[in-house]
Design brief:
This protein is α+β, with helices and mostly antiparallel strands and about 500 residues long. It is about 40% helix and about 20% strand. It contains 16 helices and 14 strands. α3 packs antiparallel against α16, α5 crosses α9 and α7 crosses α8. The longest helix is centred in the middle third of the chain and has 27 residues. It binds iron/sulfur cluster (2 copies). The site of one iron/sulfur cluster (SF4) has 14 residues, from α14. The site of one iron/sulfur cluster has 15 residues, from α13 and α14.
Length: about 500
């Protein structure tokens, strides 16, 4: 606005005043990126983090290679979302496209589990199991291995370009790209047979689409885990923005106990601790933080709850002979109680945790029952709309229906179809002669049989629409499915 306005007669102080005014009216929305150099740390939470990271990576990379015998002609991959099929294979469960609600159910279960974990333990998902955290941690480990720990990396980045520097950087990015390619490749293996697609990619025989997605997932892994890192959590991820809605004062979060730490200050060996806090202002908690924040400033959106600052501070407290857990996994309610020297309370059962737990059990129960009652036959009927009925030369009325029967088993199915609720009705298949009380249908394994069936019945003036059932029976004559439809009579 100031730049477009006509310039007033300038005075010595005018530009400075204009800048100050502009700063107040339109503060900059842009902040320069400050590179974070997390230092390595040892401790209980780091050990847990390594264990979770290893487990996640082993599961992710190895799952597509797990085989599962489904008989001849069926994919033998335990976990496969076959887009060409299209089918979803989850061990001995097969999901057809029309049963995609099972996937929806799984996503709802995942969301509820995340809500419950957040209400109980804060951002434990972000700090330990989120793919962004896992791969960033892995990429950081590679960086540390090649370029050294925090101080060595900062020195290297500040150095002018040299052969040694270029060599280290090239080596780091080469390893990052290898990991990214393995990650992108593994992602594709969840959608196509793992051994086949690996062979095709290596020998150059894969489709263009496979190479495109392989390249896309490799690039995104490399950029997000290698370059963007904590910026994904701070700027891109929506979860930190609304996860606070799942928390309350009893949720465990990583917190600096200011009542114990302040007044902070440097401490020399042998000096008294009287009249001061336990924080020796060593910055160790800041230096190990993967998002580069200072937890002593209170709970922050950038904090992913990894608890590495607890390990770093515990180490320092051990060195200066003060009690550990100056930074702790503690609820805000207990922080208050500790400050008042009151015993702490562990309140896991609260309205929100009970609600999330209850919903979790309900959805899991519905999904289990739905899976147990799942039919191996899919059956649908659609009445011809144009025309609704045809008056035949002998005066009888004919209606047409498109009937689809899906066979979700690995063996051919022999079925019998008849119509009930319409006296003296007979059936026949389009293009086939004869009139029948019932029709024999053969549905091939893992196929959908589609049939154009006509039903013929004597005219009943004034009836309009008559309710009628199509009934499917198996070879033993047992009813396997029934669908209500209507037979249209001319009025
Ligand atoms: S402040 Fe602590 S818990 Fe939060 S991200 Fe940094 S190191 Fe992890
Ligand atoms: S690591 Fe502990 S002692 Fe050091 S600055 Fe952080 S809170 Fe203070």
């Amino acid at each position: 606005v100031n730049a477009m306005a006509p310039k007033p007669a300038s005075t010595d102080h005018q530009p400075a005043r204009d800048e100050a005014l502009l700063g107040v009216l339109a503060p900059s929305l842009y902040a320069d990126h400050v590179k974070v150099y997390p230092r390595s740390v040892q401790g209980r939470f780091r050990t847990i983090k390594w264990a979770v990271l290893s487990l996640c990576l082993v599961v992710y990379y190895s799952l597509p290679w797990l085989r599962w015998d489904r008989g001849a002609g069926a994919p033998d991959q335990a976990l496969l979302l076959d887009m060409s099929g299209p089918r979803g294979y989850f061990f001995n469960i097969e999901i057809w496209p029309q049963e995609v609600y099972y996937i929806t159910g799984l996503l709802i279960l995942g969301a509820l589990a995340l809500f419950l974990a957040t209400a109980l333990f804060g951002r434990v998902w972000c700090g330990y199991t989120c793919p962004q955290t896992v791969w960033t941690d892995l990429f950081l480990a590679v960086e540390r291995w090649i370029e050294g720990d925090r101080n060595a990396r900062m020195r290297l980045d500040a150095q002018p370009v040299s052969a040694a520097k270029v060599l280290r950087k090239v080596a780091k990015h080469a390893v990052w790209l290898l990991i990214a390619a393995a990650t992108g490749g593994a992602w594709i293996m969840y959608f196509v047979d793992a051994p086949t697609v690996t062979r095709e990619i290596v020998t150059g025989g894969a489709s263009l689409a496979t190479y495109f997605f392989f390249g896309l997932f490799t690039l995104t892994t490399y950029v997000l885990a290698g370059w963007a890192r904590e910026q994904v959590c701070t700027y891109m991820c929506p979860w930190p923005r609304f996860q606070a809605a799942m928390q309350d004062e009893h949720s465990l979060i990583v917190t600096y106990q200011s009542w114990r730490g302040e007044a902070r200050g440097k401490h020399k060996a042998g000096e008294s601790w009287e009249g001061r806090g336990d924080c020796i202002d060593c910055q160790a908690c800041v230096h190990v933080c993967p998002t580069g924040i200072d937890i002593r400033n209170g709970p922050q959106l950038e904090c992913i709850g990894c608890a590495l600052c607890i390990d770093a501070c515990d180490e320092m407290m051990g060195k200066v002979g003060r009690p550990q857990r100056l930074i702790d996994f503690v609820s805000l309610a207990n922080l208050e109680r500790r400050a008042q020297k009151l015993p702490t309370l562990l309140k896991l059962l609260r309205a929100r945790t009970l609600l999330y737990g209850f919903l979790l059990v309900v959805v899991a129960g519905i999904m289990t029952v739905a899976l147990m009652l799942r039919s191996e036959i899919g059956f649908s009927v659609q009445q011809d709309r144009s025309p609704l009925h045809v008056v035949l030369s002998d005066g009888t009325i004919r209606n047409g229906y498109v009937i689809k029967v899906s066979n979700k088993t690995r063996a051919p199915m022999q079925l019998r179809l008849n119509a009930e609720g319409l006296p003296e009705a007979d059936l026949f298949m389009a293009g086939e002669p004869g009139r029948h009380v019932a029709l024999d249908l053969t549905v091939e394994p893992d196929e959908i049989g589609e049939y154009h069936v006509f039903v013929r019945a004597p005219r009943r003036p004034g009836d309009g629409l008559i309710n009628m059932d199509f009934v499917l029976r198996n070879g033993a004559g047992m009813e396997v499915d029934r669908l209500r439809t209507q037979f249209s009579m001319p009025k």
